[in-house]
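Methods: holo model generation. Sequences were used as deposited, without trimming of termini or removal of tags, and paired with ligand SMILES retrieved from the corresponding compound records. Each pair was processed once, and we did not select among multiple samples. The sequence and zinc ion SMILES for this entry were:
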Amino acid sequence: MMDQSDTIERVKEIIEDSQKIVVMIGIGAVIESGGENIWSSRECYRIEEFYHKSPDEMMSVGYYSARRDKFFDFYKREILGPDLKPASLYEDVRRLQATGKVLKVITQNYFDLEQEAGLSDVVGLHGNIKNNHCTHCGKEFPVEYIRESKGVPLCDDCGAPIRPGVLLFGETIHNDLMTEAVNACEEADMVLILGTNMSDSMVRYCTGNYAGEHLALITKEEHYTDRFADYVIHGKVGDVLPKVIA
Ligand SMILES: [Zn+2]
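and the model returned the structure below.
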């Protein structure tokens, strides 16, 4: 078995030799950017204590439809509340992207950190907090409009409720986005997975058709599915990336 410094050297070589890299960015990147994972057991507990519902229930399309006032109370506080700034790992990905070797950046995060950090070719599978629209007339609204609204944010043209631009539980990922992500993985000579693990639905679906042997995982927490990656480096993504991207 390789030790960690050998793995770091090997992943660095693979990145150097690759021409078509897919980068997948998971929730760990949000945490490194100052956010919380509301689906972690600690946060789930806090949320259930406070709201008497699980984060899954509160972020569901059913709850948005049935209890829109409570949905937005939760959404504004827990999703839009934390003040996030792109962690250094995004700058490393941007440097890698500047070499022209990155096919796509795929993420389930919707906090706009990728865009704020200047990344391009981003496939945001779960949408983006900035892309809000009126459910009746389709008018678009910036995130500040939702943040500053009292109660349920309503369209200033037609008065209908505004729909946040993120995927809710009970909804399926837009087919075109999924196809784009899967195709990129099929074409890739390397998949670089950051801040999540192999049990992540995004990773499972997208890498299902990846036929190569250069699937590298960089993540802080160990997980029993780590063995499904070809290379695993445990550590803060922002600490590891500068060592593997020249
Ligand atoms: Zn409207």
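The pocket of zinc ion is lined by residues 134, 136-137, 139, 155, 157-158, 160 (CB under 6 Å).
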